[in-house]
Amino acid sequence: MPMDGPPPYSSSSSAESSPFSSSSSSPANKGSTTAVVLSIECLKGTSKSDEWTGDMLQTGDIVEEIRIGNMVIKSPFKNGKTGVNKILHGSYKQKETSVRVRVRRGPDEFAQLQACVVPGDQFLGRKQYVLRAIDDPNYAVGFCDRTESECFNLQASRTIRMVSALESISLEDGYVSYPWDRRMHEMLSVPNSSSFYSILFLPKASDNSASRYNDLEDTLARAHTWINASQESGAPIVFMNIQTESLLTKISGDTASSRVNAGSLSDLSNLANTSLYGFEDYHGVDIGVVRAVRLWFSPLAGEIPIEVKIKDTDTKLGFAISRTQEGFIYISSVIQGNDDVPSSRSGLSNMHEQANRTSRLLVVSRISNQKVLPWMVSTTGAIRCYDTVSLSQKLSLHRHTRVPIMMHVFLWDRNTNFANVGSIRARAMSTCTHSSPNEIRLANENNDDPGVVLPPSSEDVEGDDDSGGGDAAEIKLERDTAGEFSFRFRDFAVNKNNWL
């Protein structure tokens, strides 16, 4: 801009010097490479490493001019970095933070940066100010006092420094917020409950005092036996994964099968097949590490919610529950030939019939959104699972109170489609238990499209034999370890006195 005299903040060859520029520059020092100049120090690169291109400022560039608003400061700079930092401090306090820096690279190459002034780190009790690029706030530069020869050397070593930066760059991580509550409600069939199923096998005690335990191979063999027996019994599950799981406990000195010496790594080889080993903590307390085995499994074709609605006139639910030796709850029998019971209206009877045709059990995975699958095997070998007595009582209370039953069952055929599954899933996720949804209708065997789910026709119902009034039913009750009064139905025959 035209002015009558020299700019108050720029260098000048006249006798009147700028208070922010050096007062004089002798001819002897003007071309000397030992003269101290104001140089650029790249503090943080751009998001795309554009600081290595010719358009961006680089470490070693020589500052020729600084513009802050209407103020122009040219080289040479009085007091170097300290003087410029003082100027930036005053501009920042006056909220004049827009800066344009022009630099020289080599004899005749120039570049400039449009940035803003921001506070940096403290140095010798004074706050240092840095410049952040307007178009990329990640890119930050500062100022440094160097000799001109040092600047030329840095500029010449640009390629070497790029390779060094590539080798030394580290990836940064951090935390980002996530809407867990909303996503867990939207993405799960049952809110706040996963569809990952597992059972934990503790090592079996080899004596009555539980002071010795079988090795890890024995625990793995029992887990393998359980999954094979479950599939053999008709439970529609598949093996997913198996892993060891360490559990800490306090033990006596003679209980552990093996002990770890902290000063010797050779002892670790003794732990390969050990199910329980011990060590002492810093306070001399014996700590035991139990190596349990967790087996992960999943339904053969997923699981589906079924809502069993109850009318005021219903006197029975129309189905009976039982439990396998492996701990799975399943629908053992349903009333046939009566489509006015809850089990028939909900489609549970037809699902049970289809499962029987494929020699599969209709396994119940959840009741009222609570998992009812086996989840642990104790050191005595007993399987911890739900007993049928308490489940029968809960289901009967649903009938007495006329509260619909939300039940999830394992599917066994991926090719079988069920109508209104989306709406059923939405109702399963709803907290309201008194909605009036459409009922589940299962595919009829004679339907042209086996993937379409329809209710059984009246001809099919009338043509079925009445299995509800046969010979007297023989019920065999067997005690087990799941509860004080738990029992299992075996050879369950349909009798009007046995339905829930």
TrEMBL record:
Bias-annotated ranges (Acidic residues): 459-468
Top-level taxon in the UniProt lineage: Eukaryota
Stretches for region Disordered: 1-31, 440-474
Low complexity composition bias: residue spans: 10-27
PANTHER family for this protein: OS02G0717600 PROTEIN
Name of protein: Uncharacterized protein
